[in-house]
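Box S1 | Example of a co-folding query
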Amino acid sequence: MLPFKRSIAHVIACAAASRWPHAGLTDETILEMLEYPPDDGMGDLALPCFKLSRTLRAAPPSIAAALAEALGDLSAADVSAAGGYLNFRMSRAYLTDHVLASIEARDERYGAGESGAGKTVVLDYSSPNVCKPFHIGHLGTTVIGHSLKLIHEFLGYRCVGVNYLGDWGTQFGKQIVAFKRWGDRETVEAGGCDELVRLYVKFHEEAEKDPALEDEARAEFHKLETGDEENYALWKWFVDVSLAEYQKTYRQLDIKFDYYLGESFAVDKVPAQVDRLRDLGLLKIDDGASIVDLTEYNMPPCLILKKDGSTIYHARDIATAVYRKNTYDFDLAIYVTSAQQSLHFAQLFKVLELMGYDWHDKLVHVPYGTVSVDGAKLATRTGNVVLLKDLFRLSIEKVREIMEVKNPNLADKDGVAEAVGVGAIIFYYLYNSRIKDINFTLEQALSFEGSTGPYAQYTYARTCSILEKAGGVPEEGTVQLTAPEESALLVVLSKFPEKVQTAAAQYEPSVITRYIIEVCTAFNRFYQNCPILSAEDAAVRAARVRLTRAAGIVLRNALHLICLKTPEKI
Ligand code: ARG
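Box S1 (continued) | Returned holo structure for arginine
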């Protein structure tokens, strides 16, 4: 089945060709011109004819009128010309026989597509720096990244999710010195990243007084790089301790990575790339360090190796990109990080281009803005950093309190409180376009009213409870729509497949989040105005139960795409 917009574009192009055979108006040209009217009183789709005026040498209103006449009666839509616009309203037959029927038939695949079939996307996301706790700044890369993975999978892409842990660099020399001097195993086992940070901070305090510590750290890092067993074991253990902590958060978010391949994995792949840079004459020595000069492209130089020959962030990223291309043969590689790293990626992509890698244009950086949080409660021992686990815990506790009042007899209160508490934070975060800076207010995120996760999950649970009370969904049959709210709901549900495509094309999960609210609003309007279980006419009741199920299917599919769970009872 063709989506509504595409089939309308096609019939318009045919009508235009019969009327103006030499104008060369194709489906694609028309598709680009079609708009969703801001006010649905005007129809569900509109073609503004103003731009056609010059090509067709006619006034917009007469173009609209001529097209309406040439189109005649369509089964999919009622057509009308109004001023310079050609308006289309989905016909009731289309809404029931196409929209509703395809939601029912495709069920958990409704909204999915095949545009990614045979293509591979590598997604680099979350990627925290080990020995540091998982803080609110990681929320963006983690949930945007995972949501983009789910969206691409839904469109048929093979997706490879990689957690590119920041697990290499000179800071490990400092961490090793600090541990050897002031740390002990038990305290680190018990305290995890908090304790590792404490040691790291202590290193810097002590190094202020005794700069020789810096040399000691360099020596320890050099030992680590050259395979010293003791230091390697320590480093490995730091990574494991950190990972165990991150995995608790990933479990709450229901995120699994296909690979944990961090920066350390890239180190032995760097020399081959450095050789290539040198052979191409791209490498310059600047004050002892090896760099690629990017002045010509208005960017600062890209640092490759330090004076002492050790690798830097950029070098490891170059080697990693090549490894990923060779290993997964991607059609698209997405990096999700804060906008602060935009320059890093611009430089990286440029250097890969200069190195002659023709796949450099398949690399995409997806940046996002900063997050801040209200409420001193969330400040931690490690300074002003808000830890994600603390935010989750607080949110889950609050939901638990609300539930105790709202629905004290609910089964699996803990499970539901976690799904709603964590979901509220994700939803609130993914509601804004990713590039905007946001300020977090837990009160707002947790509200059951407004554009929130709890409201969306609650609306889904409402569809489930109606279906349960209905005692099953009626067999397929003719569906009668009697109220405007029913048609309006179906029109909204019909847009889901296009929203999924837009979200992928713009790397923007908020397209789905906002759409979910549109569905909730349309469903709740329907629910308030159209009696479902108490409808007198059996056919009307049957149609409404089916509509309820369809709304539930779309809400569930959409919520899953933005990493939210969908409890059936809240
Ligand atoms: N570890 C980095 C950080 O926490 C993010 C890594 C992003 N991915 C990459 N390939 N550079 O800032």
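The mean pLDDT is 94. The radius of gyration is 28 Å.
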